[in-house]
User: Fold these one by one.
Assistant:
Number 1:
Amino acid sequence: MNELAGKRFVLGLSGGIACYKAAELCRALLKEGASVQVVMTEAAEHFITPVTMQALSNRPVYGSQWDAREPNNMPHINLSREADAIVVAPASADFMAKLIHGRADDLLSLMCLARPIDAVPLIVAPAMNREMWANPATQRNVAQLRADDVHVLDVGQGDQACGETGDGRMLEADEILDDLIAFFAPKRLAGQHVLVTAGPTYEAIDPVRGITNLSSGKMGFAIARAAREAGAVVTLVAGPVSQPTPRGVTRINVKSARDMQAAVQRCVDDATVLVATAAVADWRPATQADQKIKKDGSGETPELRFIENPDILAMVAQSPRARAGALYCVGFAAESHDLLAHASAKRARKGVPLLVGNIGPATFGHDDNALLLVDAQGATELPRASKRELAIQLIAEIARRLPAAGTPQ
Ligand code: C5P
């Protein structure tokens, strides 16, 4: 899904061992449809060669402000005027210190200073030793950069090239890519707190067995990611699935429906939107054996009795905040047929303003889906697309339906 199609990046490399990750980042940006113009400091060229970066970006690399290839001899002006963003990755401690002082003694710092500040955002991915990162001077510089509207990405945590362990590693290329995609997403949910339930639940029979379903959690995780990209604070309550946590999302892992209910109850008072995508088991075994139920050779089979699980969505939808319009509830319905009729009936039964229908067997575990949105105004179809694309569209649809900020509720 070329998520950065047509975007023009200047990728600046300052000196640091994390330069090797800039090579991967360059490839990843091109794969998403962006173009990349690489600018390197002299220090960066000690870590990775311009040849590598030229081959990956398919463009000559710039390193000097005296580069005569530009007809007007002003690469710092020409390169920054063409860019949608300048991304400095890695941004060394020294380079960040230069930025806050407006120093301009090499092409990269000169270009950052000369960029049209309102039109060309500057995004930096710091990379350094943990002591350098923790040093008050660096932390002061980070705060000053943020105050100057520079977008400073987080740092990673873990083993460092110097042999120490701690904060200060540069994020991995795929993490920076996700952050750049998020950076350009319209902030439709700024100021909102979105609570998402996702995945199946697991209802134990005994310590080693249980019942669950085939929900992969992909749709809910994609919605959590899209909500975060749209500027919301996002909490994701996830049943047992193996999906990676979207960047910037707080994840709470649960197993059973009752765990999920307890987690939702703990978080829901802060939420302004609930999107319930979880395939919660309707029933759980009435009793749970403390020990494994053994086959005793008699040929007798154990009797399983079930009791109904709490309906988390219906419960939340009945809460005073939801009824007053302070919490917008979105339900999902996985049906096998008659989608519109079943989704409309479920919307009324659950008491939610928006119900999203999909065909169960066509979605569980798949990477794509098709959605039918049913609200008080009628039905809207979101035709078959990847769950990623549908999640972005659904977030836009939800944002459109939220009470305008400042409207009395
Ligand atoms: O009743 P049904 O399971 O078809 O409803 C589906 C919708 O209700 C989904 O949004 C699901 O996450 C939510 N649900 C729930 N708690 C349950 C059952 C369903 O939150 N016990």
Number 2:
Amino acid sequence: MACKAQGALFRERFGNRERSMEPKDRIIVALDTSDRGTALRWAEQLAGSVGAAKVGLELVNAAGLGVLDDLRDAGCGRIFYDAKLHDIPNTVAGACRPIGRRGLWMTNVHACGGARMIKAAADALAEGASDAGCDAPLLVAVTLLTSLSPLEATEELLLNLPPADYVPAMARLARNAGAQGVVASPREIEAIRWACGSDFLIVTPGVRPAWTDAGDQRRTATPAEAVRMGADYLVIGRPITGAANPAEAAARIADEIAQG
Ligand code: C5P
């Protein structure tokens, strides 16, 4: 299919998604720090300006899991616990049950743990949530770390498919095993959208507004480009947390998304 025709077909099939959410609610701010006080300050500054906050192992390993509750109470929106679990199904289930009890919005596992592991995670999150009487977090799967180059993927990990084919295949596996979405680089959004349809969530890091520095991110897209390509949520860290006024930076990004 010619590129242009494919683009038009893509918009026809998936284009309405773009208008169904407030631009600010697409922003997941990455609270990348090991300092609890800094994370809480960012959360307070960003209350009402972003849809969610992503908390990773750096902060949780330094400050303990309780920091997730503190951040939720700070009012910066929903919490995505970037747990990136990858182990045997029984162990992942054991790790997911307490996560499910915390009333979080989203968490994740590595898709390469396989279908049984992903299903064990989804079931255990639901069990934990049901014990606690809260909603289970959305489960998203990391398809292939974007830090890996295509050469590393084939020569070190011995993947016999290039990332462009491997990633949508892993997304399909994750969807069939019970995940609600994937984490994927801007480069992979369209292929995943084609492979998994319109109601599968795509969470995209590596997003850089036109007015900021790319830093160490390589395969970047602007917020508007990522949403046009079919991303649901954008994980954005330093362009917001490194700004003199984080709430103003988030508002500028939301404007950029709204302009399309
Ligand atoms: O500061 P910056 O916007 O680059 O932060 C991006 C966030 O997304 C970081 O928390 C990083 O760990 C995360 N991430 C990423 N690439 C991935 C997966 C997660 O940059 N493939």
Number 3:
Amino acid sequence: MSHAASSMSPDQASSPTPDQATLWIRQPLAVSDPDAAGGIVIRGDRIVEAVAAGASPTVAIDRTFDASRHVLMPGLVNTHHHFYQTLTRAYSPALNKELFPWLTTLYDVWANLTEDQLALASELAMVELLMSGCTTVADHHYVFSGALESAIDVQVDTARRLKVRAALTRGSMSVGRDDGGLPPQSVVQDETTILDESARLIDAYHQRGEGAMVTLALAPCSPFSVSRELMQESARLAEEKDVRLHTHLAETEDETAYCQKLFGMRPLDYLEATGWLSNRTWLAHGIHFNDDEVTRLGRAGTGIAHCPSSNMVLGSGMCRTLELEAAGCPVGLAVDGSASADHSNLAEEMRQAMLLGRLRYSPSQVTHQHVIRWATEGSAGCLGRSDIGGLKPGQQADIALFKLDEARFSGAENPLAALLLCGAHRADRVMVAGDWRVVDGQPQDVDLDALLARHDQAARALRSAL
Ligand code: ZN
């Protein structure tokens, strides 16, 4: 039993089954949704009531969690990552480079990745995200050397074991250096293998509807790292299987020039020509769009995964978040891969999004509340979901509770704003689908010290394999 305050109501005598017992997250210090100022009531894997300020729940309460020292938020939703890159953080040969030279330096290291290393990298990234208050993790895995044929199966196993919600994608690369592409030939696959594997994974793992814990999407690494046929066939398969589409787009000006040279058109025109400009798609970065492209993206309802830290580290540019949102795009947040970010901390990413947004727009346009919406509701929209990312009755019981008991918060007057302004980086408690996955800042069912030791060893082995 945790240290959570457990005061039983008189209704305890009715002894509800554990999955029907109600839990009131009672009177939080602050909450991101004003409708839930008195907390929320959870039954099973769902929120059943949002309690008004100073009020008591209308449903009978079996247990309470005293949240008077906690800031309550929906669990954060990450929309783009490359878990394997946690093994190549702050890697000297790739430091201080822009995207294309950064990529070509790292591809040679990533080409030696093994399944065991990927399993450790995925576990580490998921745990790191959970500890930052993230309840839904996304990954874009596109490196499939011979040793990594089961990469997505491995990630599904890890997510299930950690009981974290996961939006996994079957990435792909089919144009290697022999054909003028950036990646080494050993990590590209032929189109038939990619499509057959994509169909197998969707059939095996993709869950549909409310409360889905594992979803699959199709995700060519970028439009220029796969053939035109594979872009088109991926869109066709996604439609047939009713799954989402994901890729990197408009990250750098180099990419725009590359697409002009390769296809004779800008990245978004190519995306549209291959059947991808739709509300089934969410794009990582989405920086270099002109006004007409912003309008077209908004009309299509295409989602944008904004990755501020990665964009700053690689000097890629600033996403036009507010224009995209005004045009009709869901805008979410993402930490991106840990070789460019180099953290997997979504709470910290909110702070970066707020600071970068204010630099581009103004403090009154990019408020802390606005950024929290990106990291929750906006991110959920990118993943095509309305059952997560909020604290409304009927939504999934995915929540994050932050305490302001560190030196960095001392003296703060507005607890919600303090999370972003003072730099929250670690949640005290995190619940996924009604299940506490972080308690007192510690991930559950994980030996964190042992994981860090094994992960560090794997990173050393990967670097020395070069
Ligand atoms: Zn990425």
Number 4:
Amino acid sequence: MAKRIIAKKGDDSLKKNCREVTVFDDKLWTLLDDMYETMQEASGVGLAAPQVSVLRRVVVIDVGDEHGKIELVNPVVVSMKGKQHELEGCLSVPDLWGYVERPAKVKVKAQDRYGKPIEIEGTELLAVALCHEIDHLNGILFVDKADKLMTREQMEQMRE
Ligand code: CO
């Protein structure tokens, strides 16, 4: 495994529509392993392949709940329910946080690293992470959707 470089806002790879994965080989497994390591080292809860400049529909998530490590290949949101409005950040936008409206509950269909169909349901932070990471695969950043963006300073002031 190896840590990869995280693309930052302004990088072209973050604006692209990513391609579907059709080959489930060791190159994909290395990508998934590297993405998980990169995400953990950066203390993130999710990472999408375009954030490491790979334009494929691949996502890793670990929000620290009972699901543990989640690997999603070709994920698609198949249903959404309710609403939540929480503060989000992104490893590709290290200096900004903002409130984004997301569904309270989402169901996602995807494939695992071997190409086997899987389904996952998320609420709370997992629902946010699923939506946030799938947005990345379509070239969308949370700052494009956030209704109030804050710098680190503004955030710290708010928390005091
Ligand atoms: Co992000």
